[in-house]
Design goal:
By secondary structure, the chain is of the alpha+beta class. The protein has helices at 11-23, 42-47, 66-77, 87-95; strands at 2-5, 27-30, 55-58, 61-64.
C-alpha cells in the first residue's frame, strides 16, 4: 500500500494527495512535519535527506518532492488519464501549452 508522509495543511502534500485521490490508489497518510515533527529522525532521513514533506513509499519505491510525486503517481496509476500515453500530448500538457 502506498504511504505518504505529510500534514494536511501543507500545500505540497495537498498536491500529492490530489493525484493520489484522482487515481484512487489505496493509501495511508501519516502525519509528519510542522507541529507533528518527525522529520529529523534517522528513519525519515533515510527516505528524504532534505527533511521535507511530502514523501511517499510505494512498496519500496521512495519518492520525495511534490512535483516528482505527482508525476510518479500519474504515470504509475493514472496512465491514459492523468498521464497521457502520447509523449507529444504529455509534453504539451507539462509545459502548459494550450494551442
Amino acid at each position: 500500500m502506498l504511504k505518504i508522509w505529510g500534514r494536511r495543511n501543507s500545500i505540497n502534500v495537498q498536491k500529492a494527495m490530489w493525484a493520489i485521490a484522482e487515481t484512487g490508489v489505496p493509501h495511508e497518510r501519516i502525519d509528519a512535519g510542522g507541529a507533528f515533527g518527525g522529520l529529523d529522525t534517522d528513519e525519515f532521513d533515510a527516505m528524504n535527506p532534505n527533511h521535507r514533506v511530502p514523501v511517499i513509499d510505494d512498496d519500496g519505491v521512495v519518492v520525495w518532492e511534490s512535483h516528482a510525486i505527482v508525476r510518479y503517481v500519474a504515470a504509475k496509476y493514472g496512465a491514459g488519464s492523468l498521464w497521457p500515453e502520447d509523449t507529444g500530448v504529455r509534453a504539451r500538457s507539462e509545459c502548459g501549452w494550450t494551442g
